[in-house]
Amino acid sequence: MVRLFHFSDDPAIERFEPRPVRVPSDRPAGREWLNGRLVWAIDDAHQMLYLFPRDCPRILAWATPQSSAADRKRWLGPGEPRAVAFIEAAWIDRLRSAMIHRYDLPAATFRSIEDARMWVSEAPVVPFGRVALAGLDGELARRGVDLRIVDSLAPLAALWDSSLHVSGIRLRNSATWQPAG
């Protein structure tokens, strides 16, 4: 059985209503509906993507069976952590002092979009539990994620040319990230 979660800084959500994404993405033909009214969730194995203050720009990367030994060595380093998370130094104090809330969601109305284990529901969702999480750097470490503090996320654009799985979240909030093009 899949476990699904939604993360928020709001401790009092009683019901998640479907809503459109704040910043629509270019979607392939037939997948435009992903910019529509949805409730978003993440599976248990990938909750590491959301153990950050909501607006914190971050890049996470991890190996897949197709990842090369050279990319593993270059980007993951010794000990090969489960994943690496990069944030700008300006965000470390906020990461360490933040409290977020992880809502447990029933999986019944959700379907996988096969993208970093994201799930969506077109129906309202009532959570069946909530856990407050603080000390987010420790939460990442407990999940095998190596947190790396950098001055700039910009040099990490090369990660997308690697054989690792890479996820960039809230990059528009970065002081140093430059959008492609």
Walk me through this protein's architecture.
This protein is α+β, with helices and mostly antiparallel strands. It has 3 helices and 10 strands. Strands 6-7-2-1-5-8 form a 6-stranded antiparallel beta sheet, covered by helices on one side. A hairpin with a 5-residue loop joins strand 6 and strand 7. The radius of gyration is 17 Å and the shape is globular.
Shape: globular
Low-confidence stretches: none
SS class: alpha+beta
Number-wise, the strands total: 10
What is the N-to-C succession of helices and strands? EEEHEHEEEEHEE
The percentage helix is: 10-25%
Count of helical stretches: 3
In short:
This protein is of the alpha+beta class.
Write the layout of secondary structure elements.
Layout: E1 4-8, E2 39-43, E3 58-62, H1 69-76, E4 83-88, H2 92-97, E5 99-105, E6 111-112, E7 118-121, E8 129-134, H3 136-142, E9 145-150, E10 165-169
Parallel strand pairs: 4-9
Antiparallel strand pairs: 1-2, 1-5, 2-7, 3-4, 3-10, 5-8, 6-7
Descriptors for this entry?
181 residues; alpha+beta; six-stranded antiparallel sheet
